[in-house]
């Protein structure tokens, strides 16, 4: 792939002022659509004293009430018509062709309806990502994932097809069988969670297969966890596979809004399809300048059946001050998703982001890929523990590694940890999203 | 970069695609394969509109 190749050069190189004009035009359209077609949105906006004619300039977008996951859940489910989507739905139920749901880890899942057109939109958004990451019709993609009721990797499959790639669904196979199939078919690309990408490489080595030399994978797209934009984790994955690793982010409610390009300079926001705003976590004031962290509020500018308008995702992000060398005018997020506002928490009075712990663990080569962190309370005092695995062939004794880990954690997070070294391979591995941070303090 | 594309001509062709697909549905007599395949085509046409037509009006340099 060469620089200057775009899925859509018209939108991807659109001057910034035109891009903002496009976003404003589209925002007004989706706002009006939702106001007219969804009882949920109409009530929300009427209660705020807003109607479509009130959105006169770009800054007026901030007057529009935000939505949160809990609000969506409250109008969906049993007894809510049209079942199960409830009053959010903007089209007759007969026009819905695709069902997905969120994982429900924070409560009842959100049910997501798509029409055929909406699903085509999800696919199209993912095409921007894959093309920017160098996927072409010469690629043979292997998907080591059993796609199911959740959104994960469905769009990757469809977008791969749309790009003209050959797509191999590796869903029901176990990890060893997937590795053998990838080898047999000389797959050149794959998509998985960072945890599974690392776990597969471990399994391959145990099978006597060295991924960089014995397999043909040259690009990997990761999603579902923040690892793709954590430098130490990305480095591990790239070394383990001898492949370039690119991040891709999105969600059931929003779609596929951000991705790395081949420059790996950070996440591009597809600003022709999505409006991403950043707000101060405490005050809610807009953050437009680079380098200042805040929480993301996002609008899908084209999704019709179940619109996503000013969704408070609670992910922490910041704009990058530099444009990308790829020539796209879509802005970059520095460091990808930096955590969730829900997850960033005070421990012993110190603000802690779980991604900072991952950066430390994955930067110590003697440690395995897995780790788990638990915060508890002993009396009135916070207590933080971390379980790690030491690689058996690492050549250093446990005391030395403990000392390195203690120092690095102290340096990067300003906290002292109880460290438990577990036998290599004993911590659980997962194909799906892995939550490695548990705050068990009473709130 | 945008100047090198004949956006105006693309817009016209995309509009024609929509007109034709919608006209096909009108004369389908309810034949499911015609209606459903036309719907699939219209979903694709919508992507063309999002990618080209929706921005065309904002481009002064569009031919």
Task: Provide structural commentary.
The complex is a heterodimer of chains A (443) and B (63). In chain A, the strands form five sheets. In chain A, strands 4-3-5-6-7-8-9-13 form an eight-stranded mixed β-sheet. Chain A has helices spanning 9-12, 16-37, 39-47, 69-74, 116-132, 154-163, 175-185, 194-206, 211-214, 231-241, 354-362, 398-413; strands at residues 96-101, 111-115, 140-143, 166-169, 189-192, 219-222, 244-251, 255-259, 267-269, 274-279, 294-300, 311-317, 332-333, 339-340, 345-347, 350-352, 367-378, 381-390, 418-422, 437-439. Chain A has 443 residues and is of the alpha/beta class. The radius of gyration of chain A is 22 Å and the shape is globular. Chain A has twelve helices and 20 strands. The longest helix of chain A is centred in the N-terminal third of the chain and has 22 residues, at 16-37. In chain A, a hairpin with a 7-residue loop joins strand 8 and strand 9. The N and C termini of chain A lie far apart (51 Å). Chain B is mostly helical and 63 residues long. Helices cover 71% and strands 0% of the residues of chain B. Chain B has helices spanning 7-26, 32-56. The radius of gyration of chain B is 14 Å and the shape is elongated. Chain B starts with 6 loop residues before the first helix and ends in a 7-residue tail after the last helix. Chain A binds chain B through residues 8-11, 13-14, 18, 21-22, 25-26, 115-117, 119-121, 124, 272-273, 302, and chain B through 1-2, 5, 7, 39-40, 42-44, 46-47, 50-52, 54-55, 58-59.
Notable traits:
heterodimer; A: 443 residues; alpha/beta; 12 helices; 30% helix; globular; B: 63 residues; mainly alpha; 2 helices; elongated
Lay out the secondary structure:
The complex is a heterodimer of chains A (about 450) and B (about 60).
Chain A: H1 9-12, H2 16-37, H3 39-47, H4 69-74, E1 96-101, E2 111-115, H5 116-132, E3 140-143, H6 154-163, E4 166-169, H7 175-185, E5 189-192, H8 194-206, H9 211-214, E6 219-222, H10 231-241, E7 244-251, E8 255-259, E9 267-269, E10 274-279, E11 294-300, E12 311-317, E13 332-333, E14 339-340, E15 345-347, E16 350-352, H11 354-362, E17 367-378, E18 381-390, H12 398-413, E19 418-422, E20 437-439
Parallel strand pairs in A: 3-4, 3-5, 5-6, 6-7, 17-20, 18-19
Antiparallel strand pairs in A: 1-2, 7-8, 8-9, 9-13, 10-11, 11-12, 12-14, 15-16, 17-18
Helix pairs in contact in A: 2-3, 5-6, 8-10, 10-11, 11-12
Chain B: H1 7-26, H2 32-56
Helix pairs in contact in B: 1-2
């Amino acid at each position: 792939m060469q620089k200057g190749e775009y899925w859509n050069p018209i939108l991807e190189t659109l001057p910034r002022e035109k891009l903002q004009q496009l976003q404003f035009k589209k925002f007004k359209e989706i706002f009006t659509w939702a106001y007219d077609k969804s009882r949920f949105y109409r009530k929300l906006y009427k209660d705020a004293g807003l109607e479509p004619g009130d959105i006169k300039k770009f800054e007026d977008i901030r007057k529009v009430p935000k939505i949160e996951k809990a609000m969506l859940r409250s109008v969906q489910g049993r007894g809510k018509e049209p079942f199960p989507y409830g009053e959010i739905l903007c089209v007759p139920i007969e026009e819905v062709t695709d069902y997905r749901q969120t994982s429900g880890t924070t409560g009842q899942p959100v049910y997501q309806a798509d029409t055929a057109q909406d699903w085509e939109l999800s696919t199209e958004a993912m095409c921007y990502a894959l093309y920017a990451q160098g996927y072409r019709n010469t690629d043979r993609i292997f998907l080591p994932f059993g796609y199911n009721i959740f959104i994960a990797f469905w769009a990757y499959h469809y977008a791969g097809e749309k790009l003209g790639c050959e797509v191999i669904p590796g869903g029901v196979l176990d990890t060893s069988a997937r590795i053998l199939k990838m080898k047999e078919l000389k797959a050149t690309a794959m998509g998985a969670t960072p945890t599974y990408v690392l776990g597969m490489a471990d399994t391959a080595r145990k099978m006597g297969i060295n991924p960089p030399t014995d397999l043909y994978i040259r690009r990997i797209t990761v999603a579902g966890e923040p690892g793709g934009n954590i430098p130490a984790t990305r480095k591990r994955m790239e070394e383990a596979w001898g492949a370039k690793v690119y991040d891709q982010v999105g969600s059931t409610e929003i779609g596929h809004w951000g991705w790395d390009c081949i420059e790996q300079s950070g996440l591009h926001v597809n600003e022709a399809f999505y409006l991403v705003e950043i707000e101060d976590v405490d005050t809610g004031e807009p953050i437009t300048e680079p380098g200042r962290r805040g929480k993301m509020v996002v609008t899908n500018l084209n999704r019709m059946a179940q619109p996503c308008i000013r969704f408070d995702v609670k992910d922490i992000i910041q704009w990058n001050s530099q444009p990308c060398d790829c020539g796209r005018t879509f802005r970059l997020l520095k460091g990808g998703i930096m955590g969730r506002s829900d997850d960033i928490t005070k421990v012993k009075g110190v603000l802690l982001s779980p991604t900072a712990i991952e950066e430390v663990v994955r930067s110590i080569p003697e440690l395995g890929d897995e780790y788990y962190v638990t915060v508890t309370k002993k009396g009135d005092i916070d207590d933080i523990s971390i379980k790690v695995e030491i690689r058996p062939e690492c050549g250093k004794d446990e005391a030395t590694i403990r000392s390195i880990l203690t120092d690095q954690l102290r340096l990067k997070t300003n906290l002292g940890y109880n460290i438990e070294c577990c036998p290599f391979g004993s911590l659980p591995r997962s194909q799906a999203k892995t939550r490695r941070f548990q705050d068990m303090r009473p709130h | 970069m945008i100047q090198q594309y004949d956006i105006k001509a693309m817009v016209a062709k995309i509009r024609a695609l929509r007109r034709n697909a919608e006209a096909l549905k009108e004369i389908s007599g309810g034949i499911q394969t015609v209606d459903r395949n036309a719907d699939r085509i219209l979903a694709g046409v919508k992507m063309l509109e999002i990618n080209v037509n929706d921005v065309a009006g904002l481009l002064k340099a569009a031919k």
